[in-house]
Specification:
About 35% of the residues lie in helices and about 15% in strands. By secondary structure, it is of the alpha/beta class. A hairpin with a 6-residue loop joins strand 12 and strand 13. A seven-stranded mixed beta sheet has the order 2-8-7-6-5-3-4, sandwiched between helices. Helix 2 packs parallel to helix 7 and helix 3 crosses helix 4. It has two domains: about 110 residues, Aspartate Aminotransferase, domain 1; about 190 residues, Type I PLP-dependent aspartate aminotransferase-like (Major domain) (Aspartate Aminotransferase, domain 2). The longest helix has 24 residues.
Amino acid sequence: MKLAGPEIGEEIGDPIQHGGNLSRARALFPHAPEPWVDLSTGISPHSYPHSPLPDNAFTRLPDVASAERLKALAAAAYGASSAAHVAAGPGTQILLPMVADLIARKGQAAVLSPTYAEHARAARLAGFEVRETAELDRLAEADLAVIVNPNNPTGRIVPRADLLALAAIMRAKDGLLVVDEAFMDVSEASSVTDAVDAGGLVVLRSFGKFYGMAGLRLGFVMSHPETITRIENRLGPWAVSGPALHVANEALGDTAWQNAMRLRLKEDAARLDALLGAAGISVVGGTSLFRFIRDPRAHTVFRRLGEQGILVRRFEERPHDLRIGFPGESDWPRLEGALKAI
């Protein structure tokens, strides 16, 4: 098993390359038509239609009562026992090293891979020796175990019973299981947020992906109230902006919109599968926010789409893999034409 470490010329703290980097795409394909169609992320193209922001949204500090209301809504929406089990922060990205630092004993961390690379980087920043593994059983050997469920980019789902069994193992040795449920909003898998009170378990949830508002920067940690207090002490006051509080307090309570959007995203997934299939490209995984492709022609697909101003997510360490998100309604014809050319 290979120990995961920084590449040559890369420092441990360097940010990992992600989707959404249009500056890099323009450098790779300087003659591509504008505007670019960015399908390199797992962010919904359908943003939540929030009401206008209050006039003082940018001129006043975030309201404490509004922040508490958000925690209660998040607990109800995500299945946590109470608001005391929830901490809100400016995106899950900033929460990752805080969660990794919850364990005083900085031994070994294990990440179920391939997956979102920032979990391994955050564990290294916290002082862990990081092992990335495709074997679920190996996670029990670590002090910090990380599972993205449903997984990004493959869509793999680890059953709830397996997650709870692993959490019990981690709890017994004062370790920690982190389950990143960033894409659970569009999954039929079972969340484990209702089990965090037992200890040894932290669950992360992302707001921006399902609600199509990644730029809002909002994420949640769910765990035992004592753990939540530690996280909130690290975050300090006003961790969530006033505009984010306004939008999320509406969105998390809007179950009608949520249910309708889940159906719409399933339709988008089926539509994209049909287009890819017509181009001879097989979908082998994903969620209702992105599709996962494994094909020996992946580099050619990436290049041909890039030349047409369409960016998808490639993985330099896995050259046969691609992740492709969903276009907005006006961009479907452009994607269809580019795929037909391939």
